[in-house]
Write a structure and sequence with these properties.
Number of strands: 15
Distance between the termini: 36 Å
Mean pLDDT: 90
Number of helices: 16
CATH topology of the largest domain: Rossmann fold
Helix content: 40-55%
CATH class of the largest domain: Alpha Beta
CATH superfamily of the largest domain: Glycogen Phosphorylase B
Strand order of the largest sheet: 4-3-2-5-6-7-8
Structural class: alpha/beta
Largest sheet: 7 strands, parallel
Radius of gyration: 22 Å
């Protein structure tokens, strides 16, 4: 988006919530459907779900139905937060020929793989039993693929939480594929997911988007009501660290490495950006923090001098504190990046691609620096490494931005308002014609 100063600004102003609910706490019984227990909060989606649900559970009766182990520490954490947890036997962790067989078999399915994979008879049976035994005012689908279960909810009001426009992620992945079979397969998944999103979003009583762009897309696809529930950050937990903790030549990549867009970002960083950095600044060091790196990525990192794969950590804040610059070289993605908000909250300088910063109300040159080619990304990184003053300026502006706009309390209030509106009979819309399996 162009501005008069030729800087790039991302993230349109928040969409107003029409007929905002009066600030009267009306306790609701809400059934949330999701893929897993959102604890520990070690990925962007889990961080968001955990922070929103535990806040809303203080005022409302929340039940969560998902795949998972009812005796795990994660399950106990949910119950301790006041959330009634109902679990279904976890999905198998497929790999090798079993995974490829499932992927190939999905070619003949109407729904994309990420929908059909989660739609199991045991989950449907658990949902039917729960709906027959308990009263709920609202069903909340915590991930768009779970709207496939909308046909089981009868006349209950339904809200879809769109963490991303899922078809956009599949399309971007297809565009980054190097082989024709991969481009064809992931392009097919993108088309299937787009068709699924266009079927389910108009049938829900509301769609909550993480970014204004995603909410606007839901409107374009016929959503009756959309609300903006942005990502957030714990401003007390993620606070600026002492300058003494910072290592002048240290770069940080932070992200779950079992998510393909992050794997692609690390490979892009190692293969195309890092050589440019090292050629001009040999002392630079890169630290990669994230859970479950696949073997091929771990091997690639091991072959890269000056790069350390830390893996999964209990607390990312010491690594953020040590970094001079945080790198977000994403080429695939959707929604908005919690990792950027956490970095900004700690007053860190950030270099990102346009896709990495997408959906956030950040301005290039004010809150972070952008670079969409390897050369531009490396130039921005080196510029910051050479200027502690500019690092401090960006960090200060970034912290100010998250304080003004990106707290989890503010996000929870927005979602609560949406729940209250949708749960009222006058807000309900007809979902006649909902097909089985969406």
């Amino acid at each position: 988006m162009k501005t008069e100063s030729s800087k790039d600004t991302f993230g349109p102003s928040p969409m107003p919530i029409a007929d905002r609910v009066p600030p009267v706490k009306e306790a609701m019984a809400v059934l949330v459907l999701d893929e897993w227990i959102p604890y520990p909060p070690d990925s962007g989606k889990r961080v968001r779900t955990w922070n929103l649900l535990r806040r809303l559970a203080r005022h409302h009766s929340i039940s969560l139905l998902c795949y998972g182990d009812p005796e795990s520490a994660a399950a106990q954490a949910m119950r301790s937060a006041g959330i009634a947890l109902h679990t279904v036997e976890p999905l198998p962790d497929l790999a090798g020929w079993q995974l490829y067989g499932r992927l190939l078999g999905n070619v003949l399915s109407r729904n994309p793989y990420s929908v059909s994979k989660h739609d199991t008879p045991r989950f449907r049976e658990a949902l039917r039993r729960l709906l027959s035994e308990s009263h709920f005012d609202l069903v909340h689908f915590e991930w768009t693929p779970y709207a496939a279960f909308m046909d089981e909810t009868g006349d209950l009001p339904c809200l879809i939480m769109a963490h991303n426009i899922e078809s956009q992620i599949w399309l971007r992945r297809a565009q980054q594929c190097q082989t024709f079979p991969e481009r064809t397969y992931f392009g097919l998944q993108a088309r299937k997911m787009k068709a699924f999103e266009r079927r389910v979003m108009p049938r829900a009583d509301a769609v909550a988007g993480v970014t204004a762009l995603d909410a606007q897309q839901a409107v374009a696809w016929g959503s009756h009501s959309t609300v903006l529930v942005e990502n957030g950050v714990d401003l007390d937990l993620f606070a600026p660290a002492s300058e003494r903790a910072r290592n002048a030549d240290e770069l940080l990549f932070l992200g779950s490495l079992d998510w393909y867009p992050n794997q692609d970002a690390v490979e892009y960083l190692l293969e195309e950006i890092l050589p440019l950095l090292v050629a001009r600044s040999p002392e630079v060091r890169l630290r990669i923090v994230g859970r479950r790196a696949p073997p091929h990525l771990a091997k690639r990192v091991a072959q890269s001098p000056g790069v350390e794969l830390v893996g999964e950590v209990a607390d990312v804040r010491p690594h953020l504190a040590q970094a001079a610059v945080v790198l977000v070289p994403l080429r695939i993605g959707g929604g908005s990046r919690i990792k950027i908000l956490e970095a900004l909250a700690m007053g860190k300088a950030v270099v990102s691609t346009t896709i990495g910063a997408e959906g956030l109300a950040v301005t290039n040159g004010v809150h972070l620096l952008l670079g969409d080619s390897p050369e531009a990304f490396a130039d921005s990184t080196l510029r910051l490494l050479k200027s502690p003053e500019e690092q401090a300026r960006l960090g200060s502006e970034g912290r100010k931005l998250v304080e003004e706009r990106y707290s989890w309390d503010r996000a929870a209030e927005a979602l609560e308002s949406a729940w209250l509106r949708v749960s009222r009979p006058s807000a309900a819309v007809s979902r006649q014609g909902v097909c089985k399996n969406a």
